[in-house]
Amino acid sequence: MKSHEIFAAVDPAVVTEILDWFRAHDRNVYKSAIATLAGNRKLRPVFVQKKSLPEQYAWVHKTLQIKACDAIGEQILQAYLMAGQQSMLGMFCDGMGIEHDGKGSVVGDLPAELDKAKLDETVDKLVDVFDPKIFTLYLHCFNMQVAGGYPTLTEKLASDERLKLA
């Protein structure tokens, strides 16, 4: 899945959670996202900033569903996950036996393939520890890191009823 497809499928409450996190922890990223998305749509940022917060969030969510906004959407997802969900990323890497920096950033190269048994065990553990929608969002983003995605992860995302974006 590309980021615009993720944003089309994800529960709006997840987008609200992400945007709330940025407004609370890194307002500059939120402002930059608004400015970039507005510019991409040939609008002035003030057009979006004058809207109420729920209207801003709805506009951002709708705009991130456009294929032309894939790059900014991917950056927003990565920034949120890397800064706001470090423990989840670290626990996933630990479960999969992937070397990381303690904050979820992979050290070295990503593995060529994912072990199905480790993936099943790690998903079973983490889906109960973290919000399943946020965890699923992370799994989709992790899968985007290799061309074509990991077949075992792609299959897991398609077949496991607990791993739904909405």
Structure description:
There is one protein chain. The chain has 166 residues and is mainly alpha-helical. Helix content is 68%, strand content 0%. Helix 2 (12-25) crosses helix 5 (53-64). The longest helix has 15 residues, at 70-84. The radius of gyration is 16 Å and the shape is elongated. 26% of the residues are buried.
Key terms for this structure?
166 residues
Topology of this protein?
Elements: H1 3-9, H2 12-25, H3 27-40, H4 45-49, H5 53-64, H6 70-84, H7 86-96, H8 116-129, H9 132-143, H10 151-159
Number of domains: 2
| Secondary structure: number of strands | 0
Estimated share of beta-strand residues:
under 5%
Chain-averaged pLDDT: 95
Structural class: mainly alpha
Ranges with pLDDT <50 over ≥5 residues? none
Quick one: biggest sheet? none
Alpha carbon gap, first and last residue: 15 Å
Briefly characterize the structure.
This protein has 166 residues and is an all-alpha fold.
